[in-house]
Design brief:
Elements lengths: L18 E6 L11 E6 L4 E6 L7 H11 L9 E8 L5 H19 L6 E8 L6 H13 L6 H7 L8 E9 L2 E10 L12 E6 L5 H14 L15 E6 L14 H23 L7 E9 L2 H13 L1 H8 L6 H8 L12 E4 L2 E5 L2 E2 L5 H8 L3 E7 L5 E8 L3 H8 L4
Parallel strand pairs: 4-5, 8-9, 10-14
Antiparallel strand pairs: 1-2, 2-4, 3-9, 6-7, 7-8, 10-15, 11-12, 11-14, 12-13
């Protein structure tokens, strides 16, 4: 079961003026499940995204980048097509052609250009995309288009997820109420180098193209780039921000304005909530682990230490077993790659429990107290480097028997 995570309440997910969603069963990989999502955008919507840095990136990622870079003035993105079951990654020229055919099929139905459609895929790598099933399913998606289908959309993009991930916020920008709704999917192959497996946030705010791009980059860095389940960066990671401009407000054009900062922070807070939901639903996860590295010389070295801890299978399995074998954390700090690290200056805490200082075990630490913390479903590991003023926070989970089972049986 996910760590302290409940399914989204469909009634709490706010429709976004200018966004319609339709889903269907198209039999992409398995029959009897919703596996195809169409998101239709009203004219004038601004769209920006960040994508995986994996060099073996999927065909839809390649095409999304192309389509976003070649938009003519007045020719914005009008649709996103998302399929689950097959990732269309490691599929060469044929995969690119299938992604293009997906865009053509949607464009013909919606009356726009193929370059105004963005494709997204998730699922098994190195298998051909059954594009004919997608084309056959798109008319049903169009018939099903609704503004209030966010919960269904979150379900339709799942793979090994055990629970759908969606949330909404409403904030005031100036005197104007602005709505934001987002969905995400991901549970395994999670170590983003840009974003998550798949994430989509839409808002009715009026924001310039440049600031939509700036906001999605900032949000990704503070949220999806701060999570890891297993240290594997997917071939398909994509995080998109859509601003329809339908709210009754002046367009936000100044990056230093209070209005932009309020908008950016709202997007970031929603992205953090979705990113944490992915870790809570990590494959086989039973615990959410927050790793906070403080007083480093810069954020980069703080993240370096945090990810060394988060990626250690020895540490992750100790958390699963509630075993306070905390010397493993010291070892990970030591091999994180900071050559001039003064270990005698470091303090290590589990929640507020001081575990180690002055290069070794704290005189006040009792293993029984450490075990009490380790038995919690949510735990904070705090590392104080005492080298500067920088801080970084990442989120990860434990590593259980079920992770092996899920991934051993993934294609069956």
């Amino acid at each position: 079961m996910p760590v302290n995570l409940s399914p989204p309440n469909a009634a709490s997910l706010r429709p976004i003026d200018g966004v319609m969603l339709g889903i269907t069963e198209s039999g992409i990989r398995k029959s009897g499940r919703k596996d195809l999502l169409l998101i239709e955008l009203a004219a004038g919507a601004r769209v920006a995204g960040v994508f995986t840095q994996n060099r073996f990136c999927a065909a839809p990622v390649v095409l999304c980048r192309q389509h976003l870079s070649m938009l003519d003035p007045g020719q914005g993105i009008r649709a996103l097509v998302v399929n689950t079951g097959v990732a269309n990654a490691g599929t060469g020229k044929e995969g690119l052609q299938h992604a293009r055919e997906t865009c053509v099929a949607a464009a013909e139905l919606l009356g726009c250009r193929a370059t105004q459609v963005l494709p997204f895929s998730t699922g098994v790598i190195m298998e051909p995309l059954p594009v004919e099933r997608i084309a056959a399913g798109l008319p049903d998606c169009i018939k099903a288009l609704r503004a209030d289908a966010w919960a269904d959309a979150a379900t339709a993009i799942m793979t090994t997820d055990t629970i759908a991930k969606a949330s909404s916020q409403q904030v005031s920008i100036g005197q104007t109420p602005v709505s934001l709704t987002g969905i995400a999917k991901g549970a395994g192959m999670i170590h983003p180098n840009m974003a998550t497996m798949l994430g989509f946030i839409a808002t009715d705010a009026r924001v310039s193209d440049a600031l939509v791009k700036a906001a999605v980059l900032h949000a990704a860095q503070q949220s999806f780039n701060c999570i890891t389940v297993d240290g594997d960066t997917s071939t398909n990671d994509s995080f998109m921000l859509i601003a329809t401009g339908r709210a009754e407000m002046a367009e936000i054009v100044d990056a230093n304005s209070a209005e932009y900062l309020a908008f950016r922070d709202a997007v970031t807070n929603l992205a953090i909530e979705l990113a944490q939901a992915i870790v809570r639903d990590g494959e086989g996860a039973t615990k959410l682990i927050t790793i906070r590295v403080e007083t480093g010389r810069n954020v980069e070295e703080c993240r370096q230490v945090a990810f060394a801890i988060a990626h250690s299978p020895l540490i992750k399995t100790a958390f699963f077993a509630s075993d306070p074998n905390l010397g493993r954390i010291l070892a990970a700090i030591g091999y994180a790659g900071i050559d001039d690290l003064a270990v005698e200056s470091i303090s290590l805490y589990l929640d507020d429990l001081l575990v180690a200082e002055h290069g070794g075990r704290s005189a006040s630490y009792q293993e029984s107290a450490g075990q009490r913390v380790m038995q919690q479903s949510e735990i904070t590991v705090r590392v104080v480097l005492n080298r500067g003023s920088a801080t970084a926070v990442i989120w990860t989970c434990d590593l259980s028997h079920d992770y092996v089972t899920i991934n051993a049986d993934y294609r069956s």
